[in-house]
Amino acid sequence: MKKYDVIIVGAGPGGIYSAYELLKTAPDLKVAVFERGRRLEARKCPIDGEKIKSCVSCKTCAIMSGFGGAGAFSDGKYNLTNDFGGTLYEYIGKKKAMELMQYVDGINMSHGGEGTRLYSTANTRYKTVCMQNDLHLLDASVRHLGTDINYIVLGNLLAELEGRVDFYFDTPVEKVDIADGGYLVRTKKDEYSCRDCVISVGRSGSSWMEDVCADLDIPTKSNRVDIGVRVELPAVVFQDITDELYEGKIVYRTEKFEDLVRTFCMNPKGAVVAENTNGIVTVNGHSYENPELQTENTNFALLVAKHFSEPFKDSNGYGESIARLSNMLGGGVIVQRFGDLIRGRRSTKKRIDESFVVPTLAATPGDLSLVLPKRILDGIIEMIYALDKIAPGTANADTLLYGVEVKFYNMEVSIDENLETRHKGLYVIGDGSGVTHSLSHASASGVYVARRIAQSRKAN
What we know:
By secondary structure, this protein is of the alpha+beta class. About 30% of the residues lie in helices and about 25% in strands. The protein is built from twelve helices and 22 strands.
C-alpha cells in the first residue's frame, strides 16, 4: 500500500489549486492526485462536426473529466465576486473569499494568462439601462482567459506540478474509507493511505459524492437544479454589452410566476458545444481569445433555478429526467428557432438551413415545448422579450435555442468553516461540495484548504 500525506480526489480547479498551494506552503508533504479522466493533452472529444456530429457516449467524457475538470474547455471566465458563483463566503468570510479569488487570478496571470482583459460592471451605464427595463445586472469583475488561453494556463500548471505531485489519471476512486489516523482511498486495483484527504470531484461527481457521504455518515441537504436553454444569435446583437462587460450576469423576475431567470456563461463570438454528464447529453458554450478561432455568433444560457421542498429531495434527478427526455426526442441536443417556438411548431432542417443564424453545433431540429415544463419555458420566453429591450434583435425569429442546458448541483455537504467534514482531515471542496458553482470559487476553496492543511501540519 502506497502512503501519502495528502490525497486529492479530482483534478479540477479545486484539486489543482490545492496541489499547487500545498507545494508552496508545505513542500515536504507527499501529495497524490487521482483523476478518472485523462491528462490535459489526451482530452479529445471525438465530435468533429463532419464524420462524427453528435455525442457517442465515451466511457469518460473528455469535455467533462480530466486535468482541469469541466472547466478545461470552458471559455475560461473567472468571476471575481461574492454575488454569484457559490456561497464560499458564508464559510470563510467575504473578504477572505475575494482575497483568494484575486490570488488565483494572479497565479493564472503568471502561468500564461498575462495580457488578458479584466472586465468590470463598476460604473457601467448598463446597470441603469437594465433597471429601466425591469432587469438586474449583478456586480462582478470578470477575467476572460478564453478556451485557448485557459488551456495554456492549465498546461503550465500541470508542467509545474508534475514530478512534485503523483498524478493518477484514468484512475477512478471507488471508495474513501476511514482508516487508522487517516483515510484509505480505494481504486479498482489498489489501495492508498493518507492522513488528509481532499475531495474535489466537481458536479459530474455528484452521484459518487452522495455515496461517499452515505458511507461515512456525512450529513447533506438538497440543493437546486438550473434548467433552461442556450441561446445563439448574431454577435452584433449583444456587441455593445459584451465589448464593455464581456459577460453581463442579468436577472429577470417573470410576471406570470415571479420566477427568477438569469443569463449564464455568455460567450461572445463563441461556439455551442455538447456535454456528456453520466450518459446524459446537455449543451454548453465556449469562446476563444484568439480572433482566428472566433465565430460570427454569441451564445449564452437562460436558466431557471428550481428548489424543491418536502417530500421531494432529488433536484438532480428532476433535471436528469428533463435532459433524458430531450435526448430521447432528439438523439442528443435539440435546436429550435425562436420564431418556431412562439408559433407552436417544431423546427425542421429546412427551416434551420434557411435561418439567418448559422448554428455552431450540429443538433437535431425539434420542439422544445415537448421537453421543457411550461412554467420554465414561459419564463424563458418572457426573458427573451425583456432582453430584446436592451439588446434589440434578441427576440428575432431566427434566434436559435438549444436544449436542454442543465446545471446540476451536488447535494450540499455539511462542512465547517475549514471546509472540513465531521471527520477530521476529510475536506470537501469545489463544485462537488455544493458550495461553489464557478471556476473562481472552486479554485479559491482549493487554496484555502491547502493552507489549512499546511497550518495543521506545522502545529503538530
